Amino acid sequence: MIRRPIQKKWRLLLGVLSVMILLLLYTLVSYVQHLRNPQDSTIPAWSQLKDGVHKIIEINPRSDERWIVVDSKATAYRLFLGLFYGIAGAVILGLMMGCFSVFESLLAPPLSLLAKIPPTAALAVFFVMVGTDTNMFVAMITFGILPTLAQSVYLSVKEVHEEMLFKAYTLGASQTELVWNIIFQQIAPKIIDAVRLQIGPAMVYLIAAEMVVGDVGFGYRIRLQSRLLNMNVVYPYLTLLAAFGFAMDYLLRVIQRAGFAWYVNEK
Predict the structure, then answer these.
(1) What 3-state class would DSSP assign to 36?
(2) What is the pLDDT of residues 94-123, one digit of tens each?
(3) Could you tell me the CA-to-CA distances from 52 to 91, 139, 218, 240 in Å, in that order?
(4) 37 CB-contact burial (10 Å; exposed 0-12 / middle 13-18 / buried 19+)
(5) Each residue of 187-234: pLDDT tens digit?
(6) Secondary-structure breakdown of the chain: helix, strand, coil percentages, each rounded to the nearest 5
(7) How do residues 234-260 score in pLDDT, each as one tens digit?
(8) What CATH homologous superfamily does 46-266 map to?
(9) Nearest by Cα to 156 from 122, 187, 124, 189
(10) CA distances (Å), origin 5, targets 1, 168, 193
């Protein structure tokens, strides 16, 4: 039956099973590859991955630093800063377009156009405009997520029923109170959903920029180690990126359930 709910324990079991299947498939592919070439490093065995993890977490004799620490700090700082500016700008622009027809006519066309430009294709533009330091990484993320996210906020505002606005005006609500207490409260959980969908693209833009001009960070380390065919280092870094993105997504879902239970129950 379509959309028939299943018990929570079965949902958890199926989720764990899917991960185990992926791990089993990787083990099988790695085993077959090492039968052909015992020295292969493109699909490392679990013992090779263990060595790679040790290399990541141990102090590097050349730099006297732990790769995982310095790279995590750099990438996390750039990602959170870019997401902050992108989300803040998108919410403001989206609310303005959804609430006022003048801003809708003024901002909707350029944002729709900018949303179709891949930030990775505009790397040269970012080099010229903001340089190659932290500002470039932040600008990449902000430019990458803001147009699409602003359009999502704008469409969510448009979905707020007119009856609610008329009732608020009848009860004497000011324009500011209407935007904050009625419109924003109604669209806030939808904004969280939209932000969840932008985490992946934001990480793609950041990693791509770090691969090109970074001197520290996950993208820089992946590029450097992949050139040396140290895939036992690359794969753990990819796993950490996936875990980091999953943790952010899970945190947003927790916030959504805690602050907007009515929306979660309706879904």
Answers:
(1) helix
(2) 999 998 889 999 999 999 999 888 888 888
(3) 41, 32, 15, 13
(4) exposed
(5) 999 999 999 999 999 999 999 999 988 888 999 999 999 888 889 999
(6) 80, 0, 20
(7) 999 999 999 999 999 999 999 999 988
(8) MetI-like (1.10.3720.10)
(9) 187
(10) 9, 37, 21
